[in-house]
Design a protein that fits this description.
This protein is an alpha/beta fold. 35% of the residues lie in helices and 17% in strands. The protein contains 5 helices and 7 strands, in the order αβββαβαβαββα. A 5-stranded mixed sheet has the order 5-4-3-6-7. Strands 1-2 form a two-stranded antiparallel ribbon. Helix 3 links the parallel strand 4 and strand 5. It is globular, with a radius of gyration of 20 Å. It starts with a helix and ends in an 8-residue tail after the last helix.
Length: 202
């Protein structure tokens, strides 16, 4: 084998490897959705509801209390996490342009309708989009749980959201018990809810 043939073969393998890496990256974007923070947004900026001026609030982690917030829903009602203590709360961060968010939303709505009388609450945060777009999305998916508006994405920042959808499960004591990044399958959602004794109603 001459040197020219060897170099040509090596270049072909390098191109193949690069193509595979690009394909993997695109696949992750499709599965997990686009990044939550657009370019130029300061992920470490202080968020409303936590932290000192100029100092970011602690990132929410499993086993820690879920940071409190108060936001308006599509009907103009104020909704606070603290007012839901004693209930199981699913906090879902999403955006209208997020394909995986659209995939999981019907299952979340169905479980809400099934278990709401057992103390199950869904609070869904839209990422700082026009009210008309958010309302159209909620109407298209017949959402009956509170859809919250997050002007300036302050609660998104408080919860350190890095991709859509992202879901937190909060127990009756207000403690984060699980975080799921990316779209949930129906089986995953059912397993998470079963941990709280919410099962068998479908």
């Amino acid at each position: 084998m001459n040197l020219e043939a060897s170099s040509s073969g090596r270049a072909a393998w390098l191109l193949l490897g690069a193509g595979l890496l690009i394909g993997l990256a695109l696949g992750l974007v499709v599965f997990y959705g686009l990044p939550a923070l657009p370019l130029g947004r300061d992920a470490s900026a202080p968020a409303a509801g936590g932290g000192l001026p100029g100092k970011p609030a602690p990132a929410p982690v499993v086993g820690a209390p879920a940071p409190d917030f108060t936001l308006k829903d599509l009907d103009g009602n104020s909704v606070s996490l603290s007012s839901e203590k004693g209930k199981v709360v699913l906090i879902n961060f999403w955006a209208t342009w997020c394909g995986p968010c659209r995939l999981e939303m019907p299952a979340i709505e169905q479980r809400y309708e099934t278990y709401k009388d057992q103390g199950f609450v869904v609070l869904a945060f839209d990422f700082d989009e026009p009210v008309t777009d958010v309302g159209a999305f909620a109407h298209a998916y017949n959402l009956t749980f509170p859809v919250l508006l997050d002007p300036g994405a302050k609660v998104n920042d408080l919860y350190r959201i890095i991709g859509y959808p992202t879901t937190f499960f909060v127990d009756r004591e207000g403690i984060i018990t699980r975080q799921h990044v990316g779209a949930m399958t129906e089986a995953q959602l059912d397993n998470y809810l079963a941990d709280f004794g919410l099962s068998g109603g479908l």
